[in-house]
Write a structure and sequence with these properties.
Blueprint: H1 29-35, E1 40-46, H2 53-64, E2 68-75, H3 81-93, E3 98-103, H4 105-118, E4 121-126, E5 138-143, E6 146-151
Helix pairs in contact: 1-2, 3-4
Length: about 150
């Protein structure tokens, strides 16, 4: 058996620049967006999210910081690449300079892909547990019915 030296491996770990969690995190999102230089935000989410209290907390926070926003509530579960293209068109049309992904793993994956394609900064706010999508730079989307990973 060959001995493996730790120097034989190179590891590189890329993590988010900032992780904010805890009670009231949604109410701080406007300040974080402002700190990132945002003027116009595109909130990326699923159809059901606008009816939930979390969305109101986010939009109220953005408004209190004088930030305009548009909501793209069209992310579907297990999103195809076309879903990201639809979101990209909306983000461009509304003049977004920052994306906020608000939802589960599918929403966060679409947000990351669109932000990467447009060269925009993003804030990811998970509303489900388990995917860990908010701490990676990988998006998983369906292309021609098969899941593909995109690194951005």
């Amino acid at each position: 058996m060959n001995k493996v030296d730790a120097d034989d491996y190179e590891f590189h770990l890329l993590l988010p620049m900032s992780i904010i969690f805890g009670s009231g995190a949604a109410q701080r999102i406007g300040g974080e967006a402002e700190r990132l230089g945002a003027k116009k935000v595109c909130i990326v989410t699923s159809r059901g999210m606008p009816k939930r209290g979390c969305m109101e907390q986010v939009t109220t926070s953005l408004s209190s910081h004088g930030l305009g926003f548009h909501i793209f509530a069209g992310v579907v579960p297990e999103p195809p690449i076309e879903n990201a293209y639809d979101c990209l068109s909306v983000a461009k049309a509304c003049g977004a300079d920052l994306l906020i992904g608000l939802g589960g793993g599918s929403v966060l994956d679409v947000t990351k892909k669109v932000a990467s394609d447009l060269g925009l900064r993003k804030i990811l706010m998970p509303t489900t547990a388990g995917t860990g999508s908010e701490v990676t730079n990988i998006s998983v989307l369906k292309v021609e019915g098969r899941k593909e990973a995109f690194v951005g």
